[in-house]
User: Fold these one by one.
Assistant:
Number 1:
Amino acid sequence: MHMRRISIAAILFATSAIAFGSFVPSAFAKPSDDDESSSGKHKVDMSDVPADPRNELVSLRYVEKHIGEGFKVRRSLHYSIIYNTSEEDVAVFEYAIEKTYRACAKWCIGLDIEVHQPPEKLLTHFFNEYKEYERYSQIVGGPVSSPNILGYYDPTTDYSYFYNVRNTPAFKNAKLQIEETISQLADQLRRGDVSSDQKKAIRRQILALRASQNGMNTFGGDLTEEVLQHEVAHQVLFHIGFHNRQAALQFANPRWFAEGVAQLFEPIDEGGGSGFGKVNKTKAAEFHNLVKQNALYPVDGFVSDINYFFTGNVGGIAYPQSWAIAHYLTRTKRKELKAYIDEINRRDGDFEMTVEGELELFQKHFGKVDDAWVKRWKKYMERVN
């Protein structure tokens, strides 16, 4: 049975969340020591990618025509950024997208996937105001309908779009509230009627608040960073050889797989090093809750029918379930996963997606999806937290 027709808008990859952003100096936006010291096939190529000046100019003129003047182009190693934020905030943004690019490349190399640099810089938009971002999304046919949609990648334009959460009243108020609370706690410490135990508790509170404050000095520290990493991962993986670009608009890349893999890149740096490669604790908790409620979609249908991402409970079920399957396969069936990816990438512009074909491909590489398969999957995931 063929899939019923889905609009182009359904192709868009968008993530919703409420969060705050933060700042990391742009001086840190360079290859990590791991990248520089790597050798052989495990080395990530972080050399500068050529820009496409014509594409930059066309994009710049188009956004200024519809939104207004004041936009600039900033080039990083792999990106051309169309922006109208402060230089400080775009430096934060540059650091975050390049960090995600590097993580995507290293992860693909770890799967023994041949990674190539994009032929030219990828293009993204960074709007200082939500209203500008929302208006432009409407003009280009994007999905933005509320400030909760912090960013998205559109394969039809091949661009990504974000707005500057650091410039919102919510972010500024949260930052001010932390500063005021620290000041109040410091005043309490200076009082003479505070016991030794109370002072220890107050100092612990101040330390925790300062950690949050420091987190607001890097891009993210919360769901903002998760969203950016998720959406940038979509864009990067389409350009370095992981996803099929040739037949992307024919849904050559199973949607559960595209979304599941992008969620692997959501964990953020919590101060102990990069969050990439760590368990997505948010999605793990959501998945375990779905298992307890017996609310998961049938796996054989889920991995073969894209409509679960358009007619079902997308945020509540489809996303956690796709993450759990992707996590399981990347940890237990890496050889089979590479063969699955290779076959997807051989799909050409004449590819036509069917439910039967998607299920056949999945089972060819990962085994028949029966009760025993589902049981093994759930058993493995029980210890993933």
Note: The chain has two domains: 9-242, 246-385.
Number 2:
Amino acid sequence: MCDLRQDFPFFENNPGVVWLDNASNTQMPARVIDRMTRFLSQENANIGRGEYPAAIKATLEYEKARETVARFFGCEAGDVAFTFNATDALNAAAEIVGGEVLRDGANVIASRLEHNSCILPWMRLAEKGGAEMRFIPMKNGVPDIEKIGDIVDKNTVAAVITAGSNVTGWRAPLDFICRTFAERDIPLIIDASQAAPHEFIDASRLAFDYMCLSAHKMYAPTGAGVLIAGKKERRDGIYRVGGGTVAEVNEKGFTRITGVRGIEAGTPNAAAVIAFAETLNYLSDLGINNAWESERKTADIIREELKNTDGINVLCGGEEPLPVVAFETEFLSASDVARLLGAEGIAVRAGKHCAHIAHKTLGVEATVRVSAGIYNTSDDAYELIEKIRFLRGKYGKR
């Protein structure tokens, strides 16, 4: 695999930096930055209804981006709605589904490894509607998916499941999960924010209601997300209203646009959406399976070397995890490890990673998270390990 860092201006402008914070934010290829710059400098106009050339061009490019997203994820363009990030998409899905099904005494299923953005919208709705959250039992540090049937009952009205943990890298068996909830006709929302950058998710094969993801975790700008309506779509719920969401308004009320696009209220971040489409084209041109294999190997080196380092506890990610590794040390706090590594040019993240229940369940206060991307190499892995072992030697027990 060639060194992909040459495609990313960040590394030219920050020589020597080892970027291992990809679960939080990824760098952008030059062609993506160029595409966004070209839109802003040459094509900038609000989409929809404008009859002058720039507006027509902007609208066409925005809809082309929708088609590009659909091709990449194996769905139809009509299934794709653009949001401002995955959190926005997850809130939209919760409002749409929850508005239909939540009632007093109902329950919603989630795993204990969810990002807060997955469960907080449901917790808020549950409090208002007299419902409760139920969490899938854990086994050996990962959700015991086969136990879903033990906590589902006639009052289960929805489920929200991460496709991949942003803490441990656990990969959810989506086929089994989708089938389990589909057989019971329980609406399912998938958070693909961490999995989508690392593996192909074929929406056409999965029986979900909504799938959510962010562009900035897939080598694109911040400010764009995606909500994909699945095979069991519930497309006519209301999330927010405004320009672009209605077909007719009169003194007595309004008629909504049908379909998932009806959540696209107001002026979108067209520049970020169009740049995201360019990112997906870049990943497709790259032969993404090879790049994904390379980043997994980098993470595997990190995981195994950390396990073989005294004074370090690596959290279990299950079988064939995503390239995300979380650990704690006996010799320094997570924030101190991240700060000292950062001073040496290695970017990692420390804290609870917006996954409070996960950390409480796993019995850790905070962790250092290392997450590989397509531009990381084995050299990055070994440099990280060298620096961590230096810290252990300097601050560990003698």
Note: Residues 4-25+287-395 form a domain with the Aspartate Aminotransferase, domain 1 fold (CATH 3.90.1150.10).
Number 3:
Amino acid sequence: MAAPGKPFGSARHLWRARTIDYARLGGAMSEGSERDQEDAAAATGARQGGSPRVIDGTLEDVAILRRLDTIRARCKALLTRARRGASEHFSVVDARLDDVASLVARELASGACAPGALHGRMRHFDTGGRARTAELSARICHERPEERARILVDLIVPSVLLDAGAGARWTYHDAGTVLGRSEGLAVATLRMFLAGDFSRDGVRLRADAEGLARMTVERLGRGLQVSPDNPIVGLEGRAHLLAELGAALARDPRRFGPAGRPGHLVDGLKARAERDDGRLEVEILVETLLESFSSIWPGRLCVAGHPLGDVWLHPALGEGAEGLVPLHKLTQWLALSLVEPLAVAGVEIVGKDALTPLSDYRNGGLLLDTGALALRDPESGHRLHRTDSLLIIEWRALTVALLDELAPRLRGHAAAGPSKVELEAATWLAGRRSAEARRPGATPPLSVESDGTVF
């Protein structure tokens, strides 16, 4: 996954920020050189382990950048720009969108995406038909519903945050089953949780501030079965992210309780939902998660003193905060993954179709593999790209905008179009199958220098 990323502090990832003439670049990006664009990308300040780049803006801008409609609007603006031929990196081939729709319709018809099923983290824990969550359920069945929900949230938050692409070489062995990528990460984090690896005392079934803050590269590597022969992409970045999560939990006892548990979010969300007969809009959930966890992301961009997370600078959109493209891939998938745990506590998440398509490499790979997106420079497909490069920013943004247009095309393949939640599961599966058919190890069509926190 979905929805859906360099060791911290290493010299190759310490990029210097440069002063950029945004007036020259903005609005005429297609005329700029590749070096101009890479310089603009460097200005995002995505320097691993360093301070975030400060972008001019206000608290109102921060709130706007956390909205789902802002994601859609800014991704659509980049799609409109690409359609008129102004993107230096991509051409949009609208005629091929029907090919995308056909592949996605095939997944929907196959039964692989059960109607109404959520493409969330809970599905991955029991991958391969093995009911691994039964062990967890047996150990918490005596708890009250609210505490069961807290425990599930304690599991899912770190599991989703660790879900960025593991790379083709990494696998996880679980009782004779060999798993890779997202499913392997899910089962690995479930096993770590059941062993108490995320708790202060190393025993209890919970994640808490102290247990997460003391996470080291070595501890996480053991839990993920990492070795020289079984390397994972971005191990240091993942350990750093968990440690930052622990620090964020400790700083906010009002939201996360005295022990600093992610699961304590259940209490606040339930209180909010009780104002509306137990219902809570998904946009409120996403904004709550972004407010709660914005400080954990590695040094990227900051507006009005607030780290922004999965938000990137594209000068073609404008200056300051207006030039920022929010994507919030992991946070949106986390929101989707929390729907079932919150239901245990009596909270019904509504309006889920407001979530955007996830800007991950499966969805984006599907568009490139089918030719709906085409690289203007084919050699770009053979180079390694930073997550903050304009090529990758555009790839992700165009993925969101193009997949948002897919549902009407699917009505020609079925009597009724799928919900957007069902569609997310189908596009992700179609993207994986396309990668499996085309490339060894089902690798994505573009190589991304990942830090374990984005892809």
Note: The chain has a mean pLDDT of 86.
